[in-house]
Amino acid sequence: MTEQINPSRGRWQRHWIGTVSPLARRILSFNLMALGVLVGCVLWTYDTDGWSGLGSDIRLLSEAEVITETIEKQFSDQNSALDPQEIGAVTRDALHGLRLRKGLTIGLFSPDLVWLSGAEGSQTPPATSEASVRGKPTRILSVLKLGSELFHRAFFPPRPELLSLKEYMTFAAGASEGGGVRHHGDFLSNQGPIALASSEIVHDGSVVGVLAIIEGTADVVQHRAYELEKLLQIFVISIPVVLALSVYLASTISTPISTLAEAMETRGNLEGGNGLNSRMEIPDLSGRPDEIGRLSSALRAMVTALYDRIDANERFAKDVAHEIKNPLASLRSAVGAMAIAKPGSQRQELLDVIDHDVRRLDRLLSDISNASRLESDLVKEQEKAFELGPMSVVLSQYLAEQAAQKGVELVTDFPDQTITLVGLEERLAQVFVNLITNAISFCSFGGTIRFWARQCEDRVLIVVEDTGPGLSDDSLLKIFDRFYSDRPASDFGNHSGLGLAISKQIVEAHRGVVWAENIRPVDADRTVPSQGARFVVGLPI
Ligand SMILES: Nc1ncnc2c1ncn2[C@@H]1O[C@H](COP(=O)(O)OP(=O)(O)OP(=O)(O)O)[C@@H](O)[C@H]1O
Ligand SMILES: [Mg+2]
């Protein structure tokens, strides 16, 4: 039974209506946090209470300068030196003659900071952009301010009483020493936000008074608050947009990952129960051009490779069981017949059969054990560079004797040039031993085996040719299969049919190829009888 997993199944129920996945939660909170930091920074930079702006500072300073010059001019019209009372009278007159714009408040002090006189502007100033926003609502800001006020009240001591305009002017007059026009900054008075400046009045080289000037900056502050309100409105609109985008982003990342994880977990849980028959199905997200697509492809490939390996192992176990069954069945019937066999030659015959079967089983099991270890051995063993020439010499010396015992000649023909291979020398030698011993076993008395090699560009071809019966069309398709063996009856039981399967596995582990063919004259078709078998091993160098 195969469990089908639909990637889109119950997506929303699983991730958004129910519990939001941790990854999605993280994406969402990080995005909102980024927006929060941005809002926080903006609120931090905008000080709505004390802000006045460079433009109004310069305006206030130039107004203070003009007024000071006007008053000083009054003094320069006087011919004689003035006593303090006369100074007071002159400054008062000068002040009353001024046409101050609305929003300005002026205070005059004697050099020893005694209050002489004050005036308030009444002239309507030209309309400014600040004035145009007066009365516009700043709801978000008001709520924030209220929140901040409540927070302050709850956790901090009460703020000190706000100073009056006159107190601020006295402060400015006291801090004006040093001459020139001076801007003292922006403050919050009991009549709202103000900007404060002062200037010393000089006559005949000596200070005869101090002028303090205040400008109400409520309009500027309101203008600024309105700008901030607009910005906050943009942020408020951004929150659902950020939320929606985050949810979308999270769903495109966390949902498929979660689907993949679920597919793996489902199988993981099934392993513990009775779900071994079901096959793990990884959702196919390979159409996505991102890492999730890659992950899905990689997982699918990994799972397929895993199942291929499991299938191969199952097939191997099945083949092994099948191969062992034959000698076992023969053993069983021989043992059964033993009970009723007459003593003498009949029993001896049965004992010979049992002995043959036991030897056959022994050989089969050691071949199977070698074959099953082969794969892990190939991975474990360290590849090394070695020369083909010396290996061929050792092999031909050792196998020529074996061939000679059967009246077969082994001819070796390797090029003089050095051919260096990188791989497992002993394993490759095992391949050639398999091929040559097969060839010896199929050659009849007087036959010849040629063991030769040629280098072709980046490959080397190593060939074993014999003068045996060659290969039938049917066996050409099967000889590299495990346990395939097609030998004369006299050889029965002496061969497991694993030699070529093992050889193929070793060659392929070296990124090489091996194939078999019949030897026929050039241009001869398949009906022409074979002159022998040829096995070719191609290896990269
Ligand atoms: N040189 C050859 N000429 C003709 N047939 C061959 C030759 N080499 C192999 N074969 C065929 O291929 C079969 C498989 O060979 P393989 O080496 O795998 O098994 P085996 O030699 O029968 O058994 P084992 O190698 O386990 O002793 C052989 O049984 C034989 O039928
Ligand atoms: Mg063999």
Q: Would you kindly provide a written description of the structure presented here, covering whatever features stand out?
A:
The chain has helices at 11-17, 22-45, 54-76, 84-96, 129-132, 139-155, 165-174, 218-272, 291-340, 345-380, 388-405, 425-442, 473-478, 499-509, and strands at 104-109, 115-120, 181-189, 192-203, 206-216, 384-387, 409-413, 420-423, 448-456, 459-466, 513-518, 533-540. Residues 1-10 have low confidence and may be disordered. It is rod-shaped. The chain has four domains: 12-44 and 233-264, no CATH class; 52-228, 2-Layer Sandwich (Beta-Lactamase), CATH 3.30.450; 274-380, Orthogonal Bundle (Helix Hairpins); 381-540, Heat Shock Protein 90 (2-Layer Sandwich). Helix 3 packs across helix 4 (84-96), helix 9 (291-340) packs antiparallel against helix 10 and helix 10 (345-380) runs parallel beside helix 14. It has 14 helices and twelve strands. Helix content is 54%, strand content 16%. By secondary structure, it is α+β, with helices and mostly antiparallel strands. Strands 2-1-5-4-3 form a five-stranded antiparallel sheet, with helices on both faces. Strand 4 and strand 5 (206-216) form a beta hairpin. The structure holds adenosine-5'-triphosphate and magnesium ion.
